Amino acid sequence: MKTEVSPLFIVFEGIDGSGKSTQLARLSDRLTAAGIPHSCHREPTDGPVGRLLRRALSKEIDLDELTLALLFAADRSEHALLVQAELAAGRTVLCDRHLLSSLAYNAPDLDGQWVHSINAPIRSRVRPDITFLFDLPVDEALTRVSSRGEGRDHYEKREVLQQVRDRYLYWADQLADPILRLDASRPIDSQTESLIQYLKDQHHMPL
């Protein structure tokens, strides 16, 4: 049975291994059980620019950091139109990564304010109603990634991930967006209940 609630744009952020994708899937299951229409997205997307980015991140092709930053913004620009359409149709959108990822992951030699500025026009199209930031110490994150048997991608070296985590925390304070920081070292069920309780309290979602 479909439940009528105001659609939300909900973003999940965190370094690799933080468990954000697991929490997105868990929230999706709760929304389905509650009869709340929704869709699950990710950035980079599966569109043409997003596919190019995924090839670069897997080191299939070599692109410099400036080019990557511009491509992330281009992919997000196209994605924002899709998110707009989903919200207008009454569907809540869950998204694995968004602007905070660009601000956190782009190389230290790129000016964060510049990265923010090239994304500014996109934010006039759509902005998250809430971003859940799953914060985790880097060593624990890399242990989790290694236990999955996955190769480390372009951004999964320890020193780089530490800088990424630091920038996540910095920009979470700088952005004028609703952001809830969650301790990703806590038990999975506890994290899920925290974000569910937030949605109940702040957005009156019947979950």
Automatic annotation (TrEMBL):
EC no. given is: 2.7.4.9
- Thymidylate kinase-like domain residues are 12-190
Binding of ATP occurs at: 14-21
Q: Which NCBIfam families match?
A: DTMP_kinase
What's this chain's function? Answer: Phosphorylation of dTMP to form dTDP in both de novo and salvage pathways of dTTP synthesis.
What family classification does the UniProt entry report for this protein?
A: Belongs to the thymidylate kinase family.
What name does the UniProt record give this protein?
Thymidylate kinase
Native source species: Peptococcus simiae
Give the classification, highest ranks.
Answer: Bacteria, Bacillati, Bacillota, Clostridia, Eubacteriales
Q: Which gene encodes it?
A: tmk
